[in-house]
């Protein structure tokens, strides 16, 4: 059953990818690149937190969490922006 679901999911992704325009992909990739950079900053912050203790460690971990949340929000915004491009191209 998992195989059937996986195949159907993959087929859906291929069909969706075929519908994407260059502009839509460009917008989504720009947001994705920005989100990846934020994730990298968060990873660096977490590594730094490992070398700290007490309140400084907590502050660094909180900053890393905030960066990860911002990366997630950026990815969501990218998906919405790409959807908006797709809608504008279809009208």
Automatic annotation (TrEMBL):
Basic and acidic residues bias spans: 67-91
Comp. bias intervals (Low complexity): 55-66
Signal peptide (from-to): 1-17
Region (Disordered): 48-91
Key words, A-Z: Signal
Protein name: Lipoprotein
